[in-house]
Design goal:
The complex is a heterodimer of chains A (about 160) and B (about 100).
Chain A: H1 3-24, H2 28-48, H3 52-76, H4 91-110, H5 126-134, H6 138-160
Chain B: H1 4-24, H2 28-53, H3 59-89
Helix pairs in contact in B: 1-2, 2-3
The chains are: A mainly alpha (about 160), B mainly alpha (about 100).
Amino acid sequence: MTYEEVIFYFVAALVIAGALGVVVAKNIIHSALFLILALMAVAALFILLAAEFLAIVQVMVYGGAVTILILFAMMLTRVRDLPAPRDGAQKPFAALAAIAFGITSTIAVTSTQFPGESDKINVIAFDSVSDALFTVWALPFEIASLVLIVALMGAIILARGEEGE
Amino acid sequence: MIPINNFLVLSSVLFSIGMYGVLARRNAVLILMSVELMLQAVSINFITFAAYLDPENFTGIIFAVFVIVIAAAEVGLALAIVLRLFRNRQTANVDEADLMKW
């Protein structure tokens, strides 16, 4: 085993552990903390894939913004007097569906021979990514920023509430 | 050298875990977190394909940027809806959000 593989398996174990923690933890605050673990491990995976730009974006957007937003929402929607919602009845079916999907996609992935497959990770230069983003992909980029501002304005209007409330 | 299948299998496992979370949990915020996991799995797939199969055009990297943008917008909007739901119904349980059920 090369050192790359050792790092990969370590990071993959962190990702899976964090993700399992998110979906099985009883306390939803623990779920949010496990989510941070899983997302940061995914950022490490991006570095392993030589996509440093995305790893930095991942740490800033998910580690900085999304998890904090989720923790805020949890604290604002916590009911102390009532018991936490029971999620019992559909658990076995959910597990069955998820395992079936996992097995199917794993078989599909391992039995496919991808065209033009190289056996190593090709390093994609940071500056060529930004060049492409602002030339070839400039229009989708602008549309994405429009989507962001519309969504955030909608979020503010929704969460603010009506007059006199 | 890490074979491409390692990354793809990891991402399908991650997607399955997120799928289980979406189907099994009843808390709206938890469902959102599981959706985040599924989106992460998709991003891993995109970047893997860009790094292994398409290093000249690296479309996958660009797509992963857009996935992250849309995920951020989705989280902001969905959490606002959850807050609204909580203010009106005093619950974050998706089973109790049945006002539009006919």
